[in-house]
Amino acid sequence: xxxxxxxxxxxxxxxxxxxxxxxxxxxxxxxVSEAGGLGIIGAASAPAQVVREEIRKARKLTDKPIxxxxxxxxxxxxxxxxxxxxxxxxxxxxxxxxxAKLMQEFKEAGVKVIPVVAGVAMAKMMxxxxxxxxxxxxxxxxxxxxxxxxxxLVPQVADAVQIPVIAAGGIGDGRGFAAAFMLGxxxxxxxxxxxxAKESIVHPNYKEKILKAKDVDSEVTGRSTGHPxxxxxxxxxxxxxxxxxxxxxLEELEQLTLGxxxxxxxxxxxxxxxLMAGQIAGLVxxxxxxxxxxHEIMEExxxxxxxxxx
Length: 310
Ligand code: TUI
Description:
Number of strands: 11
Bound molecules: ligand TUI
Structural class: alpha/beta
Order of helices and strands: HEHEHEHEHEHEEHEHEHHEEHHHH
Distance between the termini: 22 Å
CATH superfamily of the largest domain: Aldolase class I
Largest sheet: 8 strands, parallel
Strand order of the largest sheet: 1-9-8-6-5-4-3-2
């Protein structure tokens, strides 16, 4: 399937894997790229040197294009950007902030920049700054989220900019893919479905929580702090929301989540860990290889998009 995004990046299928903190390491990113999508290494809060090693390890597993996601709340983001350029990565996505300050450096190095946006104003600003495309991420997503839903955000962003739009948030199968294209997207990005991929290093306990999740099992913590984060409900989210209701300060809340994503992903702590996942978790029912996931979605989407009768 050819779209402006497959042409821009030289990939086979218009499917990105989200740059998820702790989850999107070299095994997952390489498997998605090897399957024809765009695998993305999530730099998150990792030191720049670790990101360099992740890029090199991924390259040993695939010679197809691989992206890096730079999380802009990380004070090391400029250092990570330098590493990405030095390692010859050709596509970067950014999240949780405004990448304007890094844009010129990337453009001069020939790196394609694709910021995540949660609203139309930010999408237009990114286009003016020279972004090659934008990822319009709805509030259905896991992790750090904006307010607008994918259904409302994607067509409004698609109307507001000329550059290609990648839809993210709430997409987990071929129906979601087809819907995103109907809304004006040129590609999709998925996170939750890839968390449970066979190649994903996420602890089996965390995977099981996603596989058993129902539609209503996610919760948003951190609304009171201005950093809303979607995750699967557990003892920690209940405690967090109780403290927020009682007006707890940032410091007390941060105590509860310090290292909690790592402990969920690596140690499988599903009681006190942060189980970031999107609302689509309820739809994700089996662990499959990245190749199976992408092929299944593309087959279903192509059938739906070509169908003559409804
Ligand atoms: O970044 C994400 N999702 C994330 S980052 C993350 S790491 C983290 N861990 C613990 C607590 C908090 C974060 C986990 N999930 N998605 C991309 C995204 N970007 N969603 C929303 C935005 C966004 C928000 C505001 C992008 C731009 C923006 O603009 C603000 C500005 O500076 O103008």
